[in-house]
Amino acid sequence: MSLAVLGTVALDHVKTPSGVKKDMLGGSAAHFAMSARLFTDVHLVAVVGRDFPDKHLQFLRRKGVNLASLKTSRGKTFRWRGEYKKDNLNAALTLATQLGVLEGYVPELTEQHARLPHVFLANIDPDVQIRLLKMMKAPELIGLDSMNLWIQHKSKSLRQLMKLVHVFVANDGEARALTGENNLIAAAKRLRQMGPRMVVIKKGEHGVLFYSDKFMFSFPAYPVEKVVDPTGAGDTFAGGLMGYLSKVRKVDEKSLRRALLYATAVASFNVQGFGMAKTAPLTMREVEERTKTLVKFMAV
Amino acid sequence: MSLAVLGTVALDHVKTPSGVKKDMLGGSAAHFAMSARLFTDVHLVAVVGRDFPDKHLQFLRRKGVNLASLKTSRGKTFRWRGEYKKDNLNAALTLATQLGVLEGYVPELTEQHARLPHVFLANIDPDVQIRLLKMMKAPELIGLDSMNLWIQHKSKSLRQLMKLVHVFVANDGEARALTGENNLIAAAKRLRQMGPRMVVIKKGEHGVLFYSDKFMFSFPAYPVEKVVDPTGAGDTFAGGLMGYLSKVRKVDEKSLRRALLYATAVASFNVQGFGMAKTAPLTMREVEERTKTLVKFMAV
């Protein structure tokens, strides 16, 4: 099946204890696509500026990502500059953002893309997410991600969106901020009450918690001894989750458990290199291998 | 088989968002014993003062805990007063401690207890732990727990002890403090290098990580929506781990995975009530039931 992802395509400047990298291809939709393409056809709905390097476009195309709904606008590509400190590699410190073409961005969709059954609203302004959602003709499975910035400043739009989606993906800090609940099981329940049938709480090195009315489960993260750059790990995770569900075209307990297993495996590659250094060359065979190791790791 | 546990027996005064309780039976060895007694014969090596309520002694005996090496000394029983705040139920704030008879405590063992094959050194001054260890005639399996206080103030004794034990149990904060490693996989490896063949890192609501040279694994915690009082959860966990290993008399990958599953299950009961309110009435049947639920919770 086919999956549309709306979000950002960015040029990232990242500093971590492992080094500094400039002008890397990044952004929520780009990281998501680099992961989801392993499982399904993925269509990028985003905007870049005229300064966006052609090599990145060619690279995305080579990786099988469909760019028909990627808009090039007059202006500069969104840029993010961040740092991760040694004592907390889970949390990015944003040093600078240049919105560029993101400001006033109105998503555009090809006729074909508007009919895709699966859509993921990766992290971007919730008003843009709502706008895209209204353009979709008959979405069967809608996923949503967000971030603290929108939880604080666009709470109303975000809460409206949560009523319209099926899968809500949040990290532990976001889940706590949105619900006021410190206990993650309680927070997951509250998020469920806010709309989405399925709630996925990402806990970084501590793994993932899934919650729905009928069942819940939790997996540990794949054990990574050296995190090089966590940028995009959450998007990569969501790409594995939605990519797998889109591939098997089934949303039941079994497929959700498998989907989150694959999501965990793909995300673990992401953090082992800067930007997409580890996810771009990734093959499904390597993902399967790591998934098997992960199954052994968590076996009773 | 039989298991000796050295540690504290205390009178606890605890405040949590769920309420306040005074003069509760507590202490590392008492919580450990209340859990381990579900799996094996457990012998308490500890000291109390003359003020220690007889009802607590009778209660421990009724629960099948052997008290032949429990010393009653002139002076007051060790008292701990602590609080847990709503926004971080994982971390206790110590408001007051009265060492009482713990000061200058020299453990005493019956002849029979000195010959026990399994011993757990629950949290108490490392110099007391070393002293007890030297009294044991032929220990086959030695477990060790500690706390930040000793990591900071008795680092030398603790490091000496770590060379003498087989299983080292620490929470995530302790593991980081002892090794200077923020990444828990890296921290576990470093702890292994410090002596113990088996390293168990307890992550509270995030579950547990096991590390040894040949294999490692991780389990999520049992999902508890409302934590009433986490006091003694780590000791209860260790009691389940050592109790099960002592029962099956085997330390291999399979038994360790089972042991940590049981440990997780028992510890989840502990946090659902004040002090031993939930672990004292617990039967093995209830533990088995929760273990089954836990296996489903974490199944792929």
Secondary structure layout plus pairing:
The structure is a homodimer of 300-residue chains.
Chain A: E1 2-6, E2 10-16, E3 19-26, H1 28-36, E4 41-49, H2 54-62, E5 65-66, E6 70-73, E7 79-85, E8 88-98, H3 111-114, E9 118-121, H4 126-135, E10 141-145, H5 148-153, H6 155-162, E11 167-171, H7 172-179, H8 184-193, E12 198-202, E13 208-211, E14 216-219, H9 233-248, H10 253-270, H11 284-298
Parallel strand pairs in A: 1-4, 1-9, 2-7, 4-5, 4-6, 9-10, 10-11, 11-12
Antiparallel strand pairs in A: 2-3, 7-8, 12-13, 13-14
Helix pairs in contact in A: 1-9, 7-8, 9-10, 10-11
Describe this structure in words.
- Two copies of one chain form a homodimer.
- With 300 residues, chain A is of the alpha/beta class.
- Helices cover 38% and strands 27% of the residues of chain A.
- Chain A contains eleven helices and 14 strands.
- Chain A has helices spanning 28-36, 54-62, 111-114, 126-135, 148-153, 155-162, 172-179, 184-193, 233-248, 253-270, 284-298; strands at 2-6, 10-16, 19-26, 41-49, 65-66, 70-73, 79-85, 88-98, 118-121, 141-145, 167-171, 198-202, 208-211, 216-219.
- In chain A, strands 1, 4, 5, 6, 9, 10, 11, 12, 13 and 14 form a ten-stranded mixed beta sheet that branches.
- In chain A, helix 9 (233-248) runs antiparallel to helix 10 (253-270) and helix 10 packs across helix 11 (284-298).
- Chains A and B meet through helix 8, strand 14, helix 10 and helix 11 of A and helix 8, strand 14, helix 10 and helix 11 of B.
